[in-house]
Amino acid sequence: MDNAATRLAEVHANIARVCKPARREAGDVTLIAVSKTHGPEAIQPLIDAGQRVFGENRVQEALVKWPALKAAHPDIELHLIGQLQSNKAEEAVALFDCIHSLDRPSLLAALAKAMDKAGRKVPCFVQVNIGDEPQKGGCSVAELPAFLAAVRATEIPLAGLMCIPPADTEAAPFFAFLAKLAADHGLEGLSMGMSGDYETAVMLGATHVRVGTALFGQRDGARG
User: What share of the chain is helix, strand, coil (3-state, %, to 5)?
Assistant: First the structure.
């Protein structure tokens, strides 16, 4: 039977299965249900099945549906996993519990200002442009050391590193590279892996996986 509870249980079982040979605890992996493009009627069954961490790509879309859902379920964590414009920093800080796309000095400044104003410190992952793709957001690998130093000079909690590997390529080398970068910089958090490759990501150290298609059955590509 294809329902939210069944899909959620299957993803959790897959995470637990790949954690064993990697000598990891399944509880150390946070499953983020990516609810972009889905309304409350599709999200509620996953909430009812026990899912409490969700991810959205756009601030404006999240503002439409999440304030009421979070008010009804105060224990829900909402993560921003898409690109963030600096002029949306205040709204993002007010709504989200974690941001996965910190990638440039202008956004760092905007988020630091917004967090100071709100009196709220939201953990952030630094997004790395792991495949050096000009069309993608993310800090370049070459600029990463200096950018991490700049983040650490603020009061923004640094959660770790995030990446989206190039499409239509084997993801494992990019996940392994991100894990090495994190280790080199004393970071443990690794936000990597989507529906098509989250098991590989978990085997290579992911602490957060961003899964949409496998939970919602959406029409996005395999890495959604």
Answer: 45, 15, 40
